Amino acid sequence: MTTELDVADADWHAARATIELVAGKWTVAVLGSLATGPQRHNELLRTVGSGISDRVLIRTLRAMESSGLVGRTVRAELSPPGVSYFLTDRGDSLLAPLRQCARWWTLNT
């Protein structure tokens, strides 16, 4: 039988896991950039903002891809091959909660 305390513990565990999923320094910025649609690597470098290096963007995208937030499409017919990054359904589903977090921040700081 599940008690109220058990449910609360499960909720906090889920909340903590979600925060850890987006806790990378550039993860939220990449999610926000990809919210407008698929982008290639150099586009992301421009839209994510100053301060992110090529190497860090690659590392961030790989981590987001492995956690299922971002997918990529490779177009081998281009020379060099074109790679576009996009939000998966899982990544897209984080946008509304992140907007709520931003709203909370605006109201409480």
Describe the structure in your own words:
One of its GO terms (molecular function) is DNA binding. Keywords: DNA-binding, Transcription, Transcription regulation. InterPro entries: HTH_HxlR (IPR002577), WH-like_DNA-bd_sf (IPR036388), WH_DNA-bd_sf (IPR036390). The protein is α+β, with helices and mostly antiparallel strands. The chain is built from 6 helices and 3 strands; from the N terminus they run ααβααββαα. It has helices at about 5-20, 25-35, 40-50, 55-65, 90, 95-109, and strands spanning about 40, 70-75, 80-85. Strands 1-3-2 form a 3-stranded antiparallel beta sheet. The mean pLDDT is about 90.
Which stretches are poorly predicted, pLDDT < 50 over at least 5 residues?
none
Measured distance between first and last alpha carbons: 41 Å
Shape: globular
Order of helices and strands: HHEHHEEHH
- Roughly what fraction of the amino acids lie in strands? 5-15%
* Sheet/helix structural class: alpha+beta
GO molecular function, one term: DNA binding
Pfam families: HxlR
Domain HTH hxlR-type: 10-109
Protein name: HTH hxlR-type domain-containing protein
Outline:
With 109 residues, the protein is α+β, with helices and mostly antiparallel strands. 60% of the residues lie in helices and 13% in strands.
